[in-house]
Amino acid sequence: MAHYLTSEVAPGKTAPDFEAHTASGPLRYHRWAKDSWSVLFSHPGTSFPLELLEVARQFAEFDKRNIKVIGVSGNWLDDQKKWKASQVKYGMRIGTADKTVQIVADDAGEIASIYGMINEEDPSAEPHTVFVVDPKRTIRLALAYPATLRKNVDKILQFIDKYSSTDEINMSSFNLDSSGRGKIYTPELTRNQDNTTLNAAADVLSLGNTVDITLASIGIYHASTRYQELRDADATADYVDNAIKLLDNLSELGKVVPFVAPAFILLKVIVDVEKNARDVDAKCRDLVLRVTFMLSHLPALANLPSITPSSPQRQVINQMNSVLKETAALIEAYRNQGALARRLSLRNKDKFERCAKDLANTTKDLMMSLQIHQSVQIDTILQRSVPQDPEDEKAKRFVERYGAGDEGVVKADKALLKQFAEELKLGVEDEAIEALNTNLGDLLREHQAQLEHRIDETIRASLTSKEVDMEQTLICVQCEKEFKQSNNHALACSFHKAEYDSWSRSYKCCGTPHPCQFKAHRAKHHSDYPYGPFFPYVRGITGYTDTTSEWANVEDFNLESDVTQSASISRLLKWKSRGAAPEKPTILIRVGWVYFKDAYYFGSFTKEDLDLQSRVIEITRQTVIFRSAPSDSEYAMVEWVTREDGGITGVRLTAKVATALTPFIRVCLFDTEKMEMSGEVMCISEGGLRSYTPLSAYSLPQSQRVSAELPETAKRPARKDFKTRTTPRLPVVIKEVVDAPLRANPNMATQAADYFHGAVSVFNKHPPGTNNPISISEVKVEWRLVGDQEYKPVKSFTFLDGTKLPLTIDPRETWALQFQVAVPRSEEDAQLGVRWWERAFVARRRPLRLKVTFVDIEDEEASLVLEWVYTPFKQEKREDGDIAFIYIDDPLLFERHSLHVKPLEKEGYVLEVEGRDISVRSLQKAVYRAMKTGESEVDIEVGQKRNTGEMGEWEWKTWALVDTSCRRVYAFKILISQPRDGKGYACLEYLPCPDYGDVMSETRAVRYAVEKVGMPTLEGYSEEDIPWDDEFDDAAPEINHSQPSLANSSGVTPMSATMVVPAEVNQRLASIDANLERIATAFEQLLEIMKSRSNV
């Protein structure tokens, strides 16, 4: 819950006076503070030791500014002890700070209650902790908990520095506020609303027909005399006061000559910077004197007739404003460099000398246009050399002595830096060392852009005559809380730079729940600085297709950093998707990607906004809306296109990246009355990296390939003609079950073995009615590959149907069994780690045979051979739509490694290689790299390594072949390779590159790339002579004639082993058995029927 100030203690109100006890005796606040700024602070807790430590640490800063600090203590005795301890810790003598800092006793909470530092009615409310009061006893700033003095001392000092000089400058005529904003001339000066601002100002003047202007008529008796006064001021270091007096003298000029307003604003900036500077710098002082001298001639403008935009005086004033802007930016950037960086940047003097020269030339032009007499003495004054500080001379000698004249040598050596800092009595901290590498030129451009923005904002606010209701309740777009202008100030609003991330449950800008930014409340969305709610607001407009209608855009891409520079102008259709149209026709201007870490602009303009902007341009002659970076090598920018009188007629969009020689520039004209486009978008310049038309067609090398060729079908079907091998004592027939052929790894796959499932039937051939059952006591399985000369036992054997041995088969009966065996792989194959399903890796090259042997209880054996032949997996093949199909086959693992190359219809892309898209942007990057390095064969990082660390490891890579003459990629080179013990397999393919991007009509001779990557040196592959069949299992069954005939249990001598029962007899016997079985069944049924009837 926020604790709002009452009207008595709100910013803008008089701070209540009070009397309290201190260690020095009674203290009356207003009398003790006198004409100084003062800071009152407290803390919600019972004590504030950390605040006292911070006050002691920053005491020199408060004392230097003559700021009075009062701590309101609810536990005075304890805090007084801690204040003494804080002074001792920072080397202060007890009592020496009493004139600046006092801790007042407020154990009863009376003062805290008056100032809202506690809230007895609502203890949960956020209490105020800090009040900043100006010399007139007006509260200028109030901070509420969790903001405390300890966390905000630097900001408070900056706040006081910024606004302490406001009351010393008479700006009543310009009506500028403490932020440099306000009215440059009063509305009542405008007699005719139809006239321009310039004409309205000219109408006020009562001018004569003669222009006999001298410096004496404006209070300057002679230029040389006035400059001597300035030099005297220079000697006494009162150059800032001199500039302040000039501001007072020029303030009235803004009423009649509004286009000098930028000069006034820039002079105020210079004054503020120099006034708050901690030291006097000879170069800055010299520039301020030159600026003051130049601007002291401006009052002569008041006696001139009407000045039009094309008048010489107006042209000179525009030139003067431009030079002033550069001067103010230089002074500001130089002051921000830090003492160590300023002294060791020896080239800074060159910038000051160039600026002094520009000021001298502009001053001469100004005096000439105003017909002011120029004496020889003035020329001497303007041409004098820029002075140097003694510290600059020391730095120069130090660099010459230790760095051989190269300042970079000193900056790179921390020991030398420390030595130089000790000589100048400066500190060497990490921040200071980092600042040494800051380019002053970049700082200059940055500050110049900030100055332009400030001038625009000031002029715009000055031209707006709408009165603001200070007590109206508004909603801040930054913190989304209510506020009133009456209590709004520079640090009134607290917010985060980035929006809340619900995924990480934090703010991306700082990662803490507490606000990290403090600014004034704003009621309308803006792009001046980032704040969280702005980004969803923008996405609501840009993230949909029905919200805007794009008129023009430019975009370029840095081919090294991947940074995009872009700008666009659109007509706003809706503020959000499926929402209502805006009340007034509105255009949107966007620069860059809207993200809190990036430089961006996103603004909307109605006709009224454009009319106001036209009047601003008429005064400032500044047409840049936004520029993303100060660098000339890379930026995006939007500028107004205007008529001579400042009226807006369109925008100019520019996007430039460092990797392009020229920028993209488009001009979009529109009618500000209808807010509609006027004609087609004009193309002023083309950026990016465009290619030339080749003079002849490209000829590509032949493809190369070293690889096996995997079979697509089985070499032959598995044999089913193997016969049962048995002995006369074991008359059985073994057959493979037709519906269940031998299967490999149907539901299990391991690296060490292959599993086979099979099914066979065993038939007892003894005649029916004979008591000759067969008892199977053992089943064993062996295996071999075709070509081997012996069978080997399988690793394991398992019945799949749960059969248990021994098992008896009655005469003329059949036993069907299902089994699983594991065939071990060789050690080499096992190390490959391959798992196959429905295929046997062990038998991928040669057919495998299983010999299933049945052993009865008398150790008689019968066997049958089963065969399994490898059927290849379905391999990748060329598909419809493929530009190319590139592959190699691995005969060891029986794998195909392949790539499909397809065309891509997607905008901005040319090809797809195995799911990897090749974009136009990547080709442009390849061309840029080739032109920069001279290497015309460029790895575009389209490729992949697969099965890394395994025996089947392979990879593919893609290179772009660049024609550096035509600045285009003309072909791709794709290499698939699988190195293996110096042998391996590879395929090198060349593919022509489709046409892409912007191509200029100008033709150039082709220049082929110098290729460095070629086909690997490999032995040619030749297939082994592998046997696919043999006769090892084709021999006729052996018959043992030496075995004696054994009687069966009935005493009947069995038939001779040589006797062969004809098939017809076997069939007849089987038929008889079936008929007998049916007769027996019928007889049993008859007996049952007869029994049932007899019972009845």
Automatic annotation (TrEMBL):
<protein>
    <recommendedName>
        <fullName>Thioredoxin domain-containing protein</fullName>
    </recommendedName>
</protein>
<dbReference type="InterPro" id="IPR000866">
    <property type="entry name" value="AhpC/TSA"/>
</dbReference>
<dbReference type="InterPro" id="IPR054000">
    <property type="entry name" value="MLKL_N"/>
</dbReference>
<dbReference type="InterPro" id="IPR036249">
    <property type="entry name" value="Thioredoxin-like_sf"/>
</dbReference>
<dbReference type="Pfam" id="PF00578">
    <property type="entry name" value="AhpC-TSA"/>
</dbReference>
<dbReference type="Pfam" id="PF22215">
    <property type="entry name" value="MLKL_N"/>
</dbReference>
<dbReference type="InterPro" id="IPR036537">
    <property type="entry name" value="Adaptor_Cbl_N_dom_sf"/>
</dbReference>
<dbReference type="GO" id="GO:0016209">
    <property type="term" value="F:antioxidant activity"/>
</dbReference>
<dbReference type="InterPro" id="IPR059179">
    <property type="entry name" value="MLKL-like_MCAfunc"/>
</dbReference>
<dbReference type="GO" id="GO:0016491">
    <property type="term" value="F:oxidoreductase activity"/>
</dbReference>
<dbReference type="GO" id="GO:0007166">
    <property type="term" value="P:cell surface receptor signaling pathway"/>
</dbReference>
<dbReference type="InterPro" id="IPR013766">
    <property type="entry name" value="Thioredoxin_domain"/>
</dbReference>
<feature type="domain" description="Thioredoxin">
    <location>
        <begin position="9"/>
        <end position="165"/>
    </location>
</feature>
